[in-house]
Amino acid sequence: MSHQPFETMIYQDAPRTTQQEAELQLHLRDCPQCARNEKAWLEVRSQLAAAPLVQPVPGFTKRWEQKLAMERVRQRERQVWYTILIIVGSLLLLLALIGLVVSLNATPASLLAGAITAFVAISNWLVEAQQTVNQLLAGTPVWVWWGLGALALVWFSIVSLTGTFAFCRATRLCILNRGVQS
Amino acid sequence: MTYNESDCLQQALQGSDEAFTALVERYQTPVYNLCYRMLGSPQEAEDAAQETFWRAYQHLRRYDPNRSFATWLLSIAAHYCIDQQRRSRAVLIPLDGMVEEIMADPAPLPERSAARSQEASALRQLLNNLNAQDRAAIVLRYWYDFSEEEIASALALTVSAVKSRLHRARQALGQRWQALEAQNAAQERRPDESPAF
Do A55 and B181 touch (CB under 8 A)? Predict the structure, then answer.
């Protein structure tokens, strides 16, 4: 006895025809296994039909609004990182290209000689600059030094304040981000 | 304020967060229910439902207005849950002391509540027995009355694949049901058994 067509009938979604129903009932009388399958599936189907839609915990929409705000902050942060990565990557690529072009057109010995020449030229230029500044400053009165010191102090204060402000802003962004997450 | 889906969608497409939030309000229960039936845990379902709405929000421009918005949304939820299940194959579902499902009945009788809790637990065990795609097909068929064509469209399957998945899933559910019944019957018999000496 083949159970296959009857199993198909038991689990089919479409309503059975009168003939199918009669054939199935006839088979179920003689086949306890198919009868058990039919009974079990009918019970499962009634369980599925009776199961309600489960609702989320109240405040879902509020939590959605928080998630939206948090994801936006994350997106902005990601964009900043992507921009930094693109700039750094481009610079590295540029440096690599320059290095490649230079290395293709020169031998290691000539590259070394060029580097030493450049180093010596820069050193000479620095020494000359120092001598010029020394000559200029030789007759400078004391009050000019005091003025320069005050200017340096002002400059240092501005730089410190700007740095502190930037740090606080970044920290507040992180705290805000954590607050949204929690 | 009356809810008009096409207006909300139109406004959401133009960048209105309020309009999209109205859509979230409208569809929170169907999306959450699908996630809950797929994942079996209230916390995972909440996360998955929130993620579904975030994905829908991000890709709203890809939504085809000729299709049902609910189908599109549930399709996103189903795919997300299937992915989640594949990532964690061994899903541990707490069967006892699980968070109560919020039913429509505001004050159920204790015995009715217990019976419902048992039914819900049995249903979870049954669904847990299915693989992710079969489970999604069953949930869409029996909770959302999706046709085989709609399930195929939502799960990116062919109609014949959906038919065979549904058939296989029904068979598995029936067999699992019989096994659970046999297990329960054995447990009920046990207290009457005399100790073996």
Answer: no
